[in-house]
């Protein structure tokens, strides 16, 4: 279950004169500030193949890119940093808990899952189908995510499940935060293997969004986890 902050944040966006063509609140790419320079820094899109991707991950990526050709599916770009405006929007929205100098939110949001070098941590790409309110995440966990030798740490898998469900929730909900996450781990995931996380929106209740997902092997024969 995730709670949507959309109503408050969209109101803030509207007050700023929001209109078509103006960057919205979630995943729009924003230039990073660079001191003493007028040059705009364009962040790297991490949701694209790199040399660390396995054959399975590249093959699945190509298959879903073909599905994107008719517009039914869309690849979601993924950057290491998010817009500084999101920080201001959240600080304004949660004004009942003012932030002082000691606990001030960072002016640049850094995406935790993109904090590793290529191939060492979270390698993934997410495709969304807005009409069906679902997403598919192709994920390969690198050696820095090891738990029991040879297998992915359960916390790393939980992080990717949360990321996948959160991406699915943004389709109808905009800016969201996780309120409750339940995971049933069926089998351990081999380190550096590729899994497919299928997420879907189940229902809406006011600001609450209820979603579910399953984590399977590339051939879909092995069920690793289920979550809501």
TrEMBL record:
GO annotations of cellular component type: mitochondrial inner membrane; mitochondrial intermembrane space; ruffle membrane
BP-aspect Gene Ontology terms: apoptotic process; fatty acid metabolic process
GO molecular function, one term: hydrolase activity
Enzyme class at the top of the EC tree: hydrolase
Pfam families registered for this protein in UniProt: 4HBT (PF03061)
InterPro entries: HotDog_dom_sf, THEM4/THEM5_acyl-CoA_thioest, Thioestr_dom
EC number: 3.1.2.2
Domain Thioesterase: residue ranges: 150-222
Domain of life of the source: Eukaryota
Bilayer disposition of the protein: Peripheral membrane protein
Subcellular location: Cell projection, Ruffle membrane; Cytoplasm; Mitochondrion inner membrane; Mitochondrion intermembrane space
Alphabetical list of SUPFAM superfamilies matching this protein: Thioesterase/thiol ester dehydrase-isomerase
Gene3D superfamilies linked to this entry: Hotdog Thioesterase
Stretches of the chain forming a coiled coil according to its record: none
Keywords: Apoptosis, Cell membrane, Cell projection, Cytoplasm, Fatty acid metabolism, Hydrolase, Lipid metabolism, Membrane, Mitochondrion, Mitochondrion inner membrane, Transit peptide
Protein family (similarity comment): Belongs to the THEM4/THEM5 thioesterase family.
Annotated protein name in UniProt: Acyl-coenzyme A thioesterase THEM4
Species of the source: Muntiacus reevesi
């Amino acid at each position: 279950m995730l709670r949507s902050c959309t109503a408050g944040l969209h109101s803030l966006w509207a007050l700023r004169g929001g209109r078509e063509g103006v960057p919205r609140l979630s995943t729009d790419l924003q230039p990073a500030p660079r001191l003493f320079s007028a040059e705009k820094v364009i962040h790297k899109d991490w949701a694209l193949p790199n040399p660390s991707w396995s054959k399975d991950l590249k093959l699945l990526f190509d298959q879903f890119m073909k599905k994107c050709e008719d517009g039914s599916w869309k690849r979601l770009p993924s950057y290491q940093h998010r817009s500084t405006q999101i920080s201001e929007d959240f600080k304004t929205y949660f004004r009942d808990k003012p932030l002082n100098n000691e606990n001030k939110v960072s002016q640049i949001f850094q995406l935790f899952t993109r904090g590793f070098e290529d191939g060492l941590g979270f390698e993934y790409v997410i495709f969304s189908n807005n009409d069906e309110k679902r997403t598919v995440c192709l994920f390969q966990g690198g050696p820095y995510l090891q738990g029991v030798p040879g297998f992915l740490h359960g916390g790393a898998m939980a992080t990717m499940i949360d990321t996948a469900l959160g991406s699915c929730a943004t389709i109808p909900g905009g800016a969201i935060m996780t309120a409750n996450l339940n995971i049933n781990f069926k089998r351990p995931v081999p380190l550096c293997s590729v899994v497919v996380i299928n997420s879907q929106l189940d229902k809406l209740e006011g600001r609450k969004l209820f979603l579910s997902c399953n984590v399977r092997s590339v051939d879909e024969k092995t069920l690793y986890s289920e979550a809501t």
